[in-house]
Amino acid sequence: MSSGTVTIAPLRRQDAARCAQIERELFPGDDPWSANAFRSELDNGNFYVGAYVGDALIGYAGLGLTDFEASVHTIAVVVDYQGSGVGKTLLRALLAKADELGLPVFLEVRTDNERAIGLYLAHGFEHLGVRRRYYQPSGADAYTMGRPANRD
């Protein structure tokens, strides 16, 4: 694991190319997002945060928002920082936004991603179903998971 203080802040449009690079490194077999995809997400008013060490982006997370629900679009952390709590911190930032808006949260996660599934279960998500061959082109299955709105 690398060292340095991690700061969570709104994802910057200028980070789109770095996000795409991280996507290619982490998800090479499953149609990684392009820089334009990240810019589009930001332009469409979705909620995205980045994890930074200094000015270096080491992770990001995004939440799609509607009037009725929120959907975790992505959470990614570079390999050197995986297992250090950065993913948990990013998820909590997304959930705080959904809670602020009083929205339930939904997501899909690879059925073989035990670390992520454990993280989601620990944060109030439940299994809702399975999407067969959801991730392409690998054909990996995904669990759908949901967390009720926290209206406290």
Automatic annotation (TrEMBL):
PROSITE patterns: GNAT. Its EC number is 2.3.1.266. Its main location: cytoplasm. It catalyses: N-terminal L-alanyl-[ribosomal protein bS18] + acetyl-CoA = N-terminal N(alpha)-acetyl-L-alanyl-[ribosomal protein bS18] + CoA + H(+). Signal peptide: none annotated. Residues 6-150 form the N-acetyltransferase domain. The keyword Cytoplasm applies. The keyword Lipid biosynthesis does not apply. It is an enzyme of class 2 (transferase). SUPFAM superfamilies: Acyl-CoA N-acyltransferases (Nat). One of its GO terms (molecular function) is protein-N-terminal-alanine acetyltransferase activity. It comes from the Bacteria. One of its GO terms (cellular component) is cytoplasm. Gene3D superfamilies: 3.40.630.30. Acetylates the N-terminal alanine of ribosomal protein bS18. Belongs to the acetyltransferase family. RimI subfamily. This is [Ribosomal protein bS18]-alanine N-acetyltransferase. It comes from Saccharothrix carnea.
